[in-house]
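Archive entry: two folds, one per protein. Generate the first.
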Amino acid sequence: MKGRQPDTQSFAAPPSGLCRPQRTPMPFMKMLARLGIGSARVDTRLEHDTVRAGGDLRGLVHVQGGHTPQRIDRIDLHLMAQYLQRDNDRRSALNAVVRTWRISNPFTLQPREEREIPFSLRVPAHTPITERGTPVWIKTALDIDNALNPEDSDRIHVLPHPSLQTVLEAVQQLGFQWRNAYCEAGSPLGRDEPFVQELEFHAGPEWKGPPRTLALLPFPQDDALELVLDLDRGPRGLTSLLEGTPLDGGRRHRRVLSSSDLSSGTGAVAALLTSYLRGEA
């Protein structure tokens, strides 16, 4: 008698789709990219994060593609600064664009593709300095049609324009010492920005007599430096200073230092500032 044969069962082969990873439908991936999920990414890499106003800032923008092809209409670099808006006793921090540069033409970025766009930018002479913590940064923005635009921000340190550096050295030579520096909302004498930077100093023991405090509003140009000096500024504040309202008996001075004045050296500029502060010029 033959032994019993083991039971056998036949199994249908599993559907082929269960043996392979499922692919996300392309329309769904495009929809996610529009929401910023799986979209292109941007990273700006600066050669140096310190630049002098009027100098050159170099670096490159690294762009990496997402899960789906995307058309990049442009890449912009914005030089940004933060300033204060005063409303009675309240203060709000606002952001302003100092300058914008377009560094690319339209192109299509393929999935996972990587591109690097180098740049060299001339930072405006009137860029606010970051002494005492004034926030200034570079914002990189990709413009993608019908999608959230990827951005990147990089804080930078801005040194004074050479003409302003000479004035600051002259002010300190006269015995004034740093007190504060900040940007505040105001009409900066016909400039495009909605703010002006104010530099505050108090008199040290080297300074004899008034003024005891000094507010300096600098407007550097390529070949000159316009200054508004406020001596012992009263409670009317920055708006009255910019609009030309007399302050404390008219101790507000608006002067322009020429390239010749500035090139004469710190000592000569200190002498000019002394004549301004004493009301002799």
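Generate the second and append.
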Amino acid sequence: IQRIFVSGARQKRTGDRVRRQLFGCRQGDHLTELNAFTAYELQAARCSPSDLRAWCRDVGLNERGLSHALTLRDRIATMFTRLKLPWVRAEPEGNPEPVLRALVRGYFHQVARLAPSGSYYLTVRGDHQLRLHPNSILYSSTTKWPAWILFTHVFLATSAELLGGAETNGSGPVPTCVSGVSAIQPDWLLELAPHYYHFGTDREHMERALRKAG
């Protein structure tokens, strides 16, 4: 599912504001989307299909995509039951760390640290510049961005509008943006992905990056 939130041109400002108020999580986009999914699941259990569609329109959620996600989750739960696998909830309830650590295990190679200027990120490997897209819940012109992030979506910006009005040089390289972003702890990388940051230049690079961020 590519989009949990829907915001057309006419409702973008309202949709973004509602999303932040109802579902926003300071840890990032993934937990914000998880909040939206949980809210959708609760709403689906207590109202009619037509009321559910209306609610999704009001709060700017992709009803079709979330319905598909719920179906997939139920299928996975059925597989767990058939295979007699434990269905374990993260504990304590409300603690985001298990979810974030699980993301690091899967996307350990898609990590970046905040540049000294605080206006863009640098990938851990390669020092490639990345811009935080304005559709990220972490994007704010008044709040300091997280020092370390994990990202799941990368794309090229096509206009200054995509960068929230950031200055761009039309003759220069097209900025690379990231969304699907979560704030993480840098020490998780060495703990959870030692096969990637284990020894030699990669580990040395990581340790240098940790010292810079410290």
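Annotation attached to the second fold: The chain has two domains: 11-87, 100-213. Strands lie at 111-114, 121-123, 129-132, 148-156, 176-183.
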